[in-house]
Amino acid sequence: MRLIFYIFIISQFLNFLGVFAEKVKEDLSGLNSVKWKKLEEKKSNPLKKIIWKSYKNDEFFFGNEKQQQGSRTNRTNSLNEERFFESVKNSVSSITEIEPFLPLNNFLKKENFQTSVRWKSSFEGGASGGTGQQIPSFVFDYGISDSSLITINFSEADDKLYNLINGQKVDYHWQNYAFSFKKKLLNTNENSFVISIVPTLEYWRHASGSKDSKSIYNQKDSLDGRDRFDNLIGSLSLPISKKLNENFTTLIVPGVTFLPEKLGSKGIGKNAYGNNFYIGSGIVLDIAKDFNFLASYTSPLGPGNNYFDKNLNYSRKPIYSIGLGWDVNSKIGIEGKITNSFGASPSTGLLTIPSDNQLLYSANITYKSQGEDTYLTPLNERDQLISNGGITVNNALMPRVGTSKINFNFDNKGNLFGSYSYSLSNIFKLELLNIGSFNEVISSGDKNSNLYSTYLDDSNLNFRLGGKLLLFSPQKNDLFWMSLRSSVGRDNNTNQGYLFSELINTIRVNNWLAFNVSPKYFFSGVESFGGIGLSSYINLFDNLMLIPEINTSIKNNSDSNFTLALRYSFSPEKSLDLYYSNAVGVQDIGQLLKDKEYRLGIKLNFLL
């Protein structure tokens, strides 16, 4: 059954590529079929010059002439597309670093700023289980001038150590507040070397151990207990880059990090990382319009270390990364990488995952407020009514930029969920908060007992953070809507997390019917599997809609759930759903699991 799921997703991509290729083919053929005609000069106006005129897209080439009412929409779309592509061409790259300790010689324009959300994680949870050892970070960049940049960075990791220490799971926590200043020192001309200096000052709060485990900084006795330390740390780097051609930039970064080499009074000799000189190298290659390939390799030179193993032996490991960056438009940039760098600040980025040297994945998204957004034509009234999504199957539509989306849900068995998201762009929505708990869940069998006990136990409280990216839309002349949505988070009681992703497709059939097909994937340290959600929006009256939904997981022991909802819309921005469902709940994992009993619930939807 998994093979069917993968074939389904691949076929979706092939279909989309086919539609795109056909559209490009039509555009090219249209350009090659332009007909030209010479207009004869009238004798009554001898000064008038010969005009060469194309009958193809006449209103585009003669945009200053008075247009007929029917052509105004096409002309507006063309002008907006021109403005968008021009803004992308002239925009400053959102990539200001390859890794936190490998800054690039890229700067923002004066008084411009950008914010980034970054997520690093191991592929497995190690000794503590879950989806992986994770460290999220939040970054704010501000251009003081065209050649100077300040960066504020916050990051936190609170998982247990990846490996057992002396047969125990050991709590390990760190939190960083970093402030960096980057100043260009030398740039004589466009093709010369560019040199900058980047000092960083950080406050590093970190701890190890608990009442049930021994601190790794205690080497003198066998007593359990928690050790906590607060340190000022720092780094200094000197990025040197050269642009070999328009698409290829090389980078060399000599630098040093300043970390403590001994912590606490129970250490024997050096029991921490210490100071490290390093030499880093990297490349940035523009492989296509708005697509970048990034790679780096860094050698720590000592005298300190950047790695320790399960026996608490410290040593040095090279740090590497490879990835792709995509400027979706001039407001939104996305980056994905594979690396063994665990730290998320300039001073800790040289460190591997505590107690191991694991391969990690990194997912970053950057928002630039000064960029120009992708233009989308406004939704019609029917489509506005479904833009609030569904119950257990989402749709691909995106609320316009600047819109807040709020949902609140509860049912007769005590499920309680609330969410808040904000559209940073016409094509990207950030899910800032998705919180709630499942209540009185009765498993339909022993098929998913581990999942139920891990994420749906009696004391569960699940926190989620995610994003949704619009890929295709009829609002920009595509055949249908397609969005990619992903979320991460964990249960507060078991401290176990999971990744949830879905590729949502929405097709408008006619004025009263639209349907969704949503392949979904659930990934965790407990279990991983795929699923498919299917739903329809059936307009009974102008403000009354019927929404049937079904979800099924694609695995040998799968079971399906069913939801039937009735939506009353007070306005396109406000609606109320009454639903009857045997899905465990409306939040991510709850959409794919089945409850033994049906629930009667209410969901309130607001667009502000």
What would your notes on this structure say?
With 608 residues, this protein is mostly beta strands. It folds into two domains: 91-368, Porin (Beta Barrel), CATH 2.40.160; 381-607, Porin. Helices cover 12% and strands 48% of the residues. The protein contains six helices and 31 strands. The chain has helices spanning 2-32, 58-61, 72-90, 381-386, 449-455, 589-592; strands spanning 36-38, 52-54, 97-99, 102-103, 113-122, 134-145, 148-157, 172-186, 194-208, 227-237, 240-245, 248-258, 276-288, 291-303, 307-308, 314-315, 319-327, 332-339, 360-368, 404-411, 416-423, 428-437, 462-472, 481-491, 497-510, 513-524, 529-541, 544-554, 560-571, 574-583, 594-607. The strands form five sheets. Strands 5, 6, 7, 8, 9, 10, 11, 12, 13, 14, 17, 18 and 19 form a 13-stranded antiparallel β-sheet that branches. It has a twelve-stranded antiparallel barrel with strand order 20-21-22-23-24-25-26-27-28-29-30-31. β15 (307-308) and β16 form a beta hairpin. It is globular, with a radius of gyration of 28 Å.
